[in-house]
């Protein structure tokens, strides 16, 4: 008899993965691809969602033929802030817009002012003003700028639920996708914001993240339970919640974004936190997750590209640089004296990058200071989610930067009163999605190793008071 398995599509902005889990939550098979982007009608880059779905169905069909396991459940973990629109016949309408698409900030002012101004609107929706990253505003923009498409829209789906729809034919909405800086949800009244009904936006019924649908017969005649999907950041915290067993903790999930999450938050989001890029997410149990964000991976890559082109280095040169205490100490001292390399900590493109490379320094040293400046910026974002009076047992670090010793050692040193560690858990977003569709007869224990990160004790380090080189004080 073939062993039972769960399949999860983990769809990131760059990497698209299909992971197969056994009953011990070990990955026993996988497939991965990077797909070429297309452009929308304005020439802005966007996901080729039709190509993505073709790859997903093809890859899933391939894994269904395995002679080593039998897939009994499928789920989806996807990046947020992305919407798909359907007409009455269930056909996709319009472009699948990139959440980084640039639009006019002034355009949204009419909406904000109608509901009390930007500050009140932000407080009610528990999110900074982020244009298309507030994915609900994509609908508002489309209604007023793409009227020919908008008139055909019958329903709007969040990205994970569009994939659920393509595999089941069912339409649904999940609370984690609504609750990730969409500007759709009023956290004060725990329901859709008034503007949603006033603008006549239409979404399918909200269902529990453990809701199961049946797979389309045209994909397979095998019985496969299909989950409705989950927002990737919220998915990534699920394994840690299971392992922590109720003890308060923080999670730093790193990748293109560093998402810092506090699932034990009981208060309200302040205007000051909003102004420092904090927001509330909604967990699968509908409790609040206080989150802060920094586009660490993107900014890191932008400045590594600047360093590479300035000094004619190989691509991914930084992967071969090892932690050096002498470089680290010097970098810390230079930062304390205000001698920054990075002049714009929020550079998302090479055109926005502003840097000042000191003369006569090695590439190894320059990378140490560059990475330390980025980490200290990220630490300020972590501090934003630490609730006063709360004691945290652990800080977990996950994602790509767990391999970066400059990053991990700095986190452990600055937060030396809290145990900082990583777990031998890869692809936590996918694992979190798998936990939503676990068959009832499976044992739900996650086996993993913990690796504690020791703070640096033999260096003279004073945490510097930083000024964000984008002009915002973060001291």
TrEMBL record:
SUPFAM superfamilies: Actin-like ATPase domain (SSF53067)
InterPro entries reported in the protein's UniProt record: ATPase_NBD (IPR043129), FGGY_C_2 (IPR049382), FGGY_Carb_Kinase (IPR050406), FGGY_N (IPR018484)
GO biological process assignments: carbohydrate metabolic process
Gene Ontology MF term list: kinase activity
Domain Carbohydrate kinase FGGY N-terminal: 7-223
Keywords: Kinase, Transferase
Residues annotated as domain Carbohydrate kinase FGGY C-terminal: 247-438
Source species, domain of life: Bacteria
PANTHER family: GLUCONOKINASE, SUGAR KINASE
Entry's family note: Belongs to the FGGY kinase family.
Protein name per the record: Carbohydrate kinase
Native species: Flammeovirga yaeyamensis
